[in-house]
Design brief:
Putative copia-type protein; 3-stranded antiparallel β-sheet; 75 residues; 3 strands; alpha+beta
């Protein structure tokens, strides 16, 4: 950023405090739940699907078991 304000600095400090406090957090998957634990990924896109600005949209999601672990959508 070219000229960060006190508000920006405070937001960054808050984010860093949050990250410091959650370093030990994680995701736990239990064995024997009857569901096969495998990673799957899906993706989709269109070409100039927005009639107003003719921009394309694409996205993806990856799951581990039945939980989404990574996803994104961009125009």
């Amino acid at each position: 950023m070219e000229r960060p304000t006190d508000l920006h600095v405070a937001a960054v400090k808050r984010i860093l405090r949050y990250l410091k406090g959650t370093l030990s957090f994680g995701v736990m998957y239990k064995c024997g739940t009857g569901e096969e634990l495998k990673m799957q990924g899906w993706t989709d896109s269109d070409y100039a699907g927005d009639f107003d600005d003719r921009k394309s949209t694409s996205g993806y999601v990856f799951t581990m078991g039945s939980s989404a672990v990574c996803w994104s959508s961009k125009k």
